[in-house]
Amino acid sequence: MAPEQSPEQPTSEYAGANSWRGDAAAVAMLTFAVDGVTPVLAAGRRHADNAMAITHQQFDARRGVPRLLSILDEFGIKATFFVPGLSAELWPGVVTAIAERGHDIAHHSYSHRPATGLSAIEERIEFERGCEALAALGISASGYRSPMWAATWNSAELAVEHGLTYDTSLMDDDRPYIIETDRGPLVELPPHWSLDDWEQYAYLPEPHLGYVIEPPEKALSLWTAELDGLREFGGLFQLTAHSFLSGRAGRARNLRRMIEIICERGDVAFMTGTQLRDAVLADPTVERRKLDRLTVDPAVYPNW
Fold first, then answer.
1. Residue 80 is part of which domain span?
2. pLDDT tier at 18 (50, 70, 90 boundaries)?
3. CATH code, domain with 254
């Protein structure tokens, strides 16, 4: 049975002082993943011997993050950076520089291995090791994003158990909602592939991280269309960028232009993950729900 659908609500019914987006037509949450070498190593440790692949990812800390921080400084905007534990261990100075600029630091696993490929015990170890790596830098993360957004049905419970208060991994909405877990509430800030730069820019032949290099203008057109649609319907514009991708020169200029467009609209509020979490928790109209785990008939859908 398909999950019950909530009727579409006019934007005007959601705006106001008590709304999670205040009087804004939409909220823009700029997020950056400091993945570094983790996607390459997650494909197999043999790739540590591939100098091209490793240096491709090391652009992240060497040039990508500083460039993106400078662009954010131009606008005085605070963003949310999702950092795998290994990145925190390899580049502690980069991660602390992000925090010192006033940006949010959030949990993004330890190794960037998708949780759906791990056992429950492995997922827990991975989660806790990521927490420990951030804690070693004096960072207490409040948000979580599963690598590749590949959350399991246990991920929300795991996040709440470890004191995290929001997640951005699930895609069943374009407005925030609150997940009711057995351990307590977890604010969900839904992302989507259409607002991810990976699908536009990721190219690495070995290991295969993507075979597409789209022009920045195409990404800008797509993201602008999503922005205006979310302004019409009162949603969350959550841009997911990777510093090893959007930190490249032409793409960084494209990101600057995207921020300019958001500012030019005049009715979009910028928030970090923790700011948006607080706004959601203060809004009594935000939907609360339990995750609806699907029951599948094995006779119909074999486990190939």
1. 26-286
2. low
3. 3.20.20.370
CB neighbours of 153 closer than 8 A, spacing ≥ 6?
291, 293
Mean of the per-residue pLDDT values of the chain: 95
Asked if residue 224 belongs to a domain, the reply is yes
With CA atoms as reference, report the closest residue to 271 among 29, 25, 21, 16.
29
Distance CA 247, CA 252 (A): 5
Q: What single string gives the DSSP state of each residue in 131-157?
A: HHHHHTTT----EE--GGG---TTHHH
Q: How many CB atoms lie within 10 A of CB 102?
A: 12
Residue 293 lies in a domain: no
Provide φ and ψ at 190, rounded to 5°.
Answer: -70, 135
**Strand pairing class (166-167; 184-188):** parallel
Which residues, including other chains, have CB under 8 Å from residue 16's CB and lie 6 or more apart? 22, 23
- Which residues are CB-neighbours of 57 under 8 A, at least 6 positions away? 35, 36, 37, 38, 39, 40, 244
Tell me whether the omega of the peptide bond preceding residue 185 falls within 30 degrees of 0, making it cis.
no
Residue 303 and residue 131: Cα distance in Å, rounded? 33
pTM as predicted: 0.94
Is residue 19 in a domain?
A: no
Q: How far is 172 from 266, CA to CA, in rounded Å? A: 28
Q: How many domains does the chain have?
A: 1
Query: What is the per-residue pLDDT across 109-163, written as a single tens digit (0 to 9) for each?
Result: 999 999 999 999 999 999 999 999 999 999 999 999 999 999 999 999 999 999 9
Residue 160 falls inside a structural domain: yes
Quote the strand ranges of 184-295, DSSP E.
Answer: 184-188, 203-204, 210-211, 236-242, 268-270, 288-289
